[in-house]
Amino acid sequence: MNLDQTDIKLLSYLQEDASISNKELSIKLHKSIAAIHERVKKLKANGYIKKTVAILDRHRIGIGLISFSQVFLKAHTFEVLNEFEQEVAKFPEVMECYQMAGSYDFMLRIATRDMEAYHLFLRHKLAVLPQVNTVQTYFVLSETKNVTAYPI
């Protein structure tokens, strides 16, 4: 599927606010409601739109600490990497997990209630994984920019 300018604008609007109605989109894009509906359906079917979510205010739901952890594994075999990824994906505290090129193996974005909750997560979940050698964590002091929309 090749994206035209209408598709790109549609995706941009939906990234900013996925709750925008097809009627509002049709006005902004000068297309019929039915045309917008079909385009959105096609974008979903072709994998451009993976899912629609609500982005919550983390402070209102009690998430007071965001941290980034660099994880160094004991080995780099296919099995060790897969086992680590499968285990870490089960932890609700882990918001993102990326395998990295460079001096460490994985970068995790972790969301917890506070420092005590992070400490419990580290001691009882992350650090006890048999694949983990070392964890270095950095705590967020302030947040200057946090967007979910990709530039298109």
Instruction: Report the principal-axis shape.
Output: elongated
Q: Return the CATH topology of the largest domain.
A: Alpha-Beta Plaits
In the residues, how many domains can be counted?
A: 2
Q: CATH superfamily name of the largest domain? A: Lrp/AsnC effector binding domain/regulation of amino acid metabolism (RAM) domain
**DSSP helix count?**
5
The secondary-structure class comes to: alpha+beta
For the largest sheet, list the strands in their spatial order: 2-3-1-4
CATH class of the largest domain: Alpha Beta
Number of DSSP strand runs: 4
Percent helix, as a range, is 25-40%
Distance between the termini: 15 Å
Overall CATH architecture of the largest domain: 2-Layer Sandwich
Provide the low-confidence segments as ranges. Answer: none
Strand proportion:
15-25%
The residue-averaged pLDDT reads 97
**Radius of gyration, Cα only, in angstroms?**
20 Å
Please outline the major beta sheet: 4 strands, antiparallel
Helix-strand topology string: HHHEHEEHE
Q: What can you see in these coordinates?
A:
This protein has helices at residues 5-16, 22-29, 33-45, 78-88, 115-126, and strands at residues 65-73, 94-99, 106-112, 132-139. The longest helix is centred in the first third of the chain and has 13 residues, at 33-45. It is an alpha+beta fold and 152 residues long. Strand 2 (94-99) and strand 3 form a beta hairpin. The protein has a 4-stranded antiparallel sheet.
